Each structure stands twice: as C-alpha cells, then as structure tokens.
TrEMBL record:
Gene Ontology molecular-function annotations: 5-amino-6-(5-phosphoribosylamino)uracil reductase activity; diaminohydroxyphosphoribosylaminopyrimidine deaminase activity
Gene3D superfamilies per the UniProt record, alphabetical: Cytidine Deaminase, domain 2, Dihydrofolate Reductase, subunit A
Segments traversing the membrane: none
Top EC class, one word: hydrolase
PROSITE patterns cross-referenced by the UniProt entry: CYT_DCMP_DEAMINASES_2
The UniProt record lists the keyword Protein biosynthesis: no
Function comment: Converts 2,5-diamino-6-(ribosylamino)-4(3h)-pyrimidinone 5'-phosphate into 5-amino-6-(ribosylamino)-2,4(1h,3h)-pyrimidinedione 5'-phosphate.
Superkingdom to which the source organism belongs: Bacteria
Keywords: NADP, Oxidoreductase
Annotated protein name in UniProt: Riboflavin biosynthesis protein RibD
InterPro entries xrefs: CMP_dCMP_dom, Cytidine_deaminase-like, DHFR-like_dom_sf, RibDG_C, Riboflavin_Biosynth_HTPR
EC number: 3.5.4.26
Lineage, uppermost ranks: Bacteria, Bacillati, Actinomycetota, Actinomycetes, Catenulisporales
Gene Ontology BP term (one): riboflavin biosynthetic process
Length: 362
C-alpha cells in the first residue's frame, strides 16, 4: 500500500452465485445478526466508510457504528463516535434528505462529479483517513478492484442463490484489461470462519515480494486475531525462496491438532500447517509482526524453538517484544543459532496500533 493513500478494504455480502441483492425494490438481507456485528466491528476500526450514490438511492444507509460500546471506545481514543461517511456522488449527486446527510453521528463528505479514485483517495489521506472501508455498490467495488486500488476484500457468503440476470452482481465486468486479481495473481486467504449459516472470508492483495510488503501483510493478518487483553495479536507468513507463500498464521487461529486455540501463536500455526519434511522450509523466510517468543509459559516449545526445528534460515520482524508481558530473547537466540534476523522498525508503529489495548494495559 502506498503511503499517500489509505488502506482500502472492500466489504460486502453476496449470495453463493455472487449477487449483492435480488431484483425486487426491497432490500434483501444476505447477512445474519452475527455477521452484521462483525461488519460493525470492522466499521469501528475504520477511519471512513465509502459508498456510491446508487447505494444511497437504493438503501439510504446511515453508515454509523451501531454498538454503543464501540462508539464509546472510539470516543475514548479521541476519535469521532463513527467514521467519516464518504459518498461518490457522481453527476447526479444525492438527495439532500439522505440519511448520511441528515442523521447525526458522523461527518459526511460527498464527492460530486467524476473524481478519479486516486484523486479521492489522495484527498481522504490528507483528511487523515488511513483505513477506508468500501461498502458498495457493485460499480464502486468493481472500479476499486479494476484500478488495483483495493488492499483487501471481506466477503460474507449467504447460503442461497439468486440466479436472476436483472439482479446486481458483486462485481461487474471491468472491460478487456480484466481485474489485476487474476489466476496469475491470486489473493492471500487471510481468514475464514462460519458465523451461523454465513461463511465469512477475508482476502489480502499482494503486490510485490519485498520484505516491507510481506511484513505489512503480517500486520494485516494480525487484525484477524480474536482480541484479548492479555496477549498480543501477531501475524506470520512463511515464504519460499521463489516468493511462493507457503503458509500463514495468526495468534489464536484455530488449527486442528494444535490443542487449545487460545494458546496458539502466529508463527507456531504457520509452521504447523506445513509438512516438517518440506524441503522449501530450509531456504524460506518467516515474516512475523512481533519478535518470535522465547521463553514461553503456555506451551513447552516457543516460536523460536519451532523456527529452529523447522530449519527456517531467515526471519523478518517488525516489532521487538517490549518487556511487559514477558522478557523475550527470541531475536538474540535466533541470531546466536545462525538465523538471519532482519528488523524493519518502520513498521513497528502499525504493530503497536493493532496491539494498543494490550500495550496500554501492560
Ligand atoms: N511471537 C509471538 N507470537 C504470538 O502469536 C504471540 N501470542 C506471542 N506472545 C508472546 O509469547 C510469549 C509467551 O506467551 P504465552 O506463554 O503464550 O502467554 C510472551 O512473550 C508473549 O508476549 N509472541
């Protein structure tokens, strides 16, 4: 992600055959209560929520954080109770009676006329927006993807089909150039889970193989960790010498065979997903948002032990563990064992931001 624009997250729910709605004038509910709550949490973590004028006309959303607890938490951090509301108004603009303009609770910016997406994103960055959630509709989602300006997709799959060509699809056809997220450029499946009868999946877009990019993806992965106040949220990615992503993990990610998921560490999960005899491990790099743990109370083997046992020769990390929850000497132990340890402290503030509640408590 370029520093000059926000991280862009596309969020939508679709039927199994990829429709955002049916063709009737009434709004179709694709998500369930648990999934709406997940979306509310994602809104609360964003600096702005963007929709197109068509969505305003069709659904007239308020685009506010619903949970009073989440609004209070934002306020305690010095933020507005709900993120900035952003509308791509297009040539027709929007109705002055629209809820985003009349309902209090957040500020609203409407971009009139045909503003290019890079122009809009640049303006939002200047307004302090670092994380932008795009909630639709189809034309807007398509435009972000086709322009390669989406960094992640969060999709809820509803367990039914629409099957009507008159209904809106999640993504239109972008034209001859197609989408950059092609079979040759697959996205990274960061997380999936069932929320009642809805299947939620989160995909991250990878643009290059640089250490900075891959380490940045671990920080995004760490946002999928079930939040707790007494343990860090960490993401890890194992990458083969040829750039192939071999596996991913995040703290407390459930993995069959590892035992109590509340004890699972990111690097441990990523390593456990691979066959220990996989020869690619011996020339791989493990990227981790936090220094690999050592020592560890929750299980006999620390992440440092797992990395050494797997024979991974290179570790890239963003943030050295501060002496709050434990005193960690993972980086020193790895170096002493001959592992190359690269630290990219420029990414440490983003790790601290994800872990702000743990660090504030510690
Ligand atoms: N590197 C790393 N990855 C994770 O996923 C983690 N949760 C942690 N946490 C740190 O590991 C140490 C031992 O933790 P527990 O015994 O599991 O509580 C400690 O230093 C934690 O802060 N580290």
């Amino acid at each position: 992600m370029a520093d000059s624009r926000p991280h862009v997250l596309l969020s939508f729910a679709a039927s199994l055959d990829g429709f955002l709605d049916d063709a009737s004038p009434n709004r179709l509910l694709l998500s369930n209560a648990a999934d709406f709550d997940r979306v509310d949490a994602a809104r609360a973590e964003s600096d702005a929520i963007l929709v197109g004028a068509g969505t305003i006309r069709a659904d007239n959303p308020r685009l506010l954080v619903r949970s009073a607890e989440r609004r209070a938490e934002r306020t305690s951090l010095g933020l507005a109770p709900s993120p900035l509301r952003v509308v791509l108004g297009g040539s027709r603009g929007i109705d002055p009676a629209a809820a985003v303009l009349t309902e209090p609770g957040a500020e609203t910016v409407v971009y009139e006329g045909r503003r290019s997406l890079p122009d809009v994103l640049g303006d939002l960055a200047e307004r302090g927006v670092r994380r932008l959630m795009v909630e639709g509709g189809s034309a807007v989602l398509t435009e972000f993807l086709a322009a390669d300006l989406a960094d992640e997709i969060q999709v809820a799959h509803a367990p039914f089909l629409i099957g009507d060509a008159a209904a809106p699809r999640a993504f239109g056809l972008p034209g001859p150039a197609g989408f950059p997220q092609s079979p040759e450029r697959r996205m990274l499946l960061a997380e999936y889970r069932s929320l009642g009868d809805v299947l939620y999946a989160r995909y991250l877009v990878q643009r290059n193989d640089s250490d900075e990019e891959l380490l940045g993806l671990t920080i995004e992965l760490s946002r999928s960790c079930p939040p707790v106040l007494n343990a860090y949220a960490v993401g890890a990615i194992i990458v083969a010498e040829d750039g192939t992503i071999l596996s991913t993990g995040y703290s407390r990610e459930p993995l069959y065979g590892l035992g109590d998921p509340s004890k699972n560490h990111a690097e441990e999960v990523a390593i456990a997903k691979l066959d220990p005899a996989d020869p690619r491990l011996r020339s791989a790099t493990i990227y981790t948002s936090l220094e690999p743990c050592s020592p560890r109370a929750s299980r006999p083997l620390s992440c440092t032990d797992h990395i050494l046992a797997a024979g991974i020769p290179r570790v890239v990390l963003a943030y050295r563990e501060p002496a709050l929850l434990a005193v960690c000497d993972g980086a020193e132990r790895l170096r002493a064992a001959g592992v190359e340890v690269v630290e990219l402290p420029a990414l440490a503030p983003a790790v601290r931001e994800v872990n702000r509640k743990v660090l504030a408590r510690g």
